[in-house]
Amino acid sequence: MASLLLTGATGLVGSRLLPRLVEAGFECRALVRGDVALPAAVTGVRGDLDDPDTLQAAVEGVDAVVHLAALFRTRDEAAIWRANRDGTRNLIAAVKQHAPNARLVMSSTGNVYNPDATRPALETDECSPKTAYGASKVAAEQLLRDSGLTWVVLRLPFVYGEGDGHLASMQALAQQFGLHPAHAYAVAHHRDIAAAVRLALTGVMDGRIVNVADGAPPVTVYEMARLAGKPIEGSAEPLVNPWSGHLDSTLLHELGFTPSVPTVYAAARDGIL
Ligand SMILES: NC(=O)c1ccc[n+]([C@@H]2O[C@H](COP(=O)([O-])OP(=O)(O)OC[C@H]3O[C@@H](n4cnc5c(N)ncnc54)[C@H](OP(=O)(O)O)[C@@H]3O)[C@@H](O)[C@H]2O)c1
């Protein structure tokens, strides 16, 4: 049975991915910072990306690392850089030393792309993020690409589903950041994030950056808020850039991915929002 370390297992994405990795047959460890309940059969390893000394026990002997841990729901930019760039550097160093043959799959974000894009973003596009979060992820990606390890970068879209509250947060986010209701994001359901990670763990994505999205037309802020039962007002104001937030997922699909949740509307119908 292949063994795997998951970082970020307590997060919005990781807590839904971990049971699926167990179900897929991986012997799972999770890097955790506190006393947390983990699925049966998962070994929790206490550690922190900020503390290199805690990472040896987490990575020792694993066949793969799925690195989700990150910081971005804060305005503290120094903390964002520390967690996302420096934490990834610490993790890479530990893997190189204690599990040098492990495959390291890291989640990045569509926020690495230029928000002034003139078409859906492709993996080969130059990254020019406008936020510390996006920039710290570009830096972390680069560290991984230069690491000499076997690596995969998955650039995730807006992830939703299974009562995670993400869609429901759109009403507040729209207000906080002045999002246009017609602004649209590429999305993927938690089930399909797990499918993309499982595909990455087969090796077909080694040495590649891959956008992850369900491949359906991006979903507007207005639709997200309405589907979550927290509607916002529409607007006839022109949208400044209709392409911002769109991810081209051709590569992912070419590599064998087929979404099991094709659209947010299918998720709503099936009661898995
Ligand atoms: N959610 C999305 O829609 C979305 C979209 C694009 C990309 N992503 C990417 O997907 C990944 C997961 O996102 P998420 O939404 O699940 O994030 P989240 O809910 O904020 O969870 C973050 C996770 O990282 C852990 N973490 C943070 N700093 C750490 C440190 N220094 N050491 C160890 N663990 C640490 C947290 O642990 P604690 O519980 O101990 O704080 C938590 O488990 C991130 O890489 C993010 O960039 C997510």
Automatic annotation (TrEMBL):
Regions that span the bilayer: none
Residue ranges occupied by any NAD-dependent epimerase/dehydratase domain in the UniProt entry: 5-169
Gene3D superfamilies, per the entry: NAD(P)-binding Rossmann-like Domain
UniProt xrefs under Pfam families: Epimerase
UniProt GO molecular function: aldehyde dehydrogenase (NAD+) activity
Top-level lineage group: Bacteria
InterPro entries referenced in this protein's UniProt entry, alphabetically: Epimerase_deHydtase, NAD(P)-bd_dom_sf, NAD(P)-dependent_oxidoreduct
A GO cellular-component term linked to this record: cytoplasm
Protein name, entry field: Oxidoreductase
Organism: Dactylosporangium matsuzakiense
Phylogenetic classification of the source organism: Bacteria, Bacillati, Actinomycetota, Actinomycetes, Micromonosporales
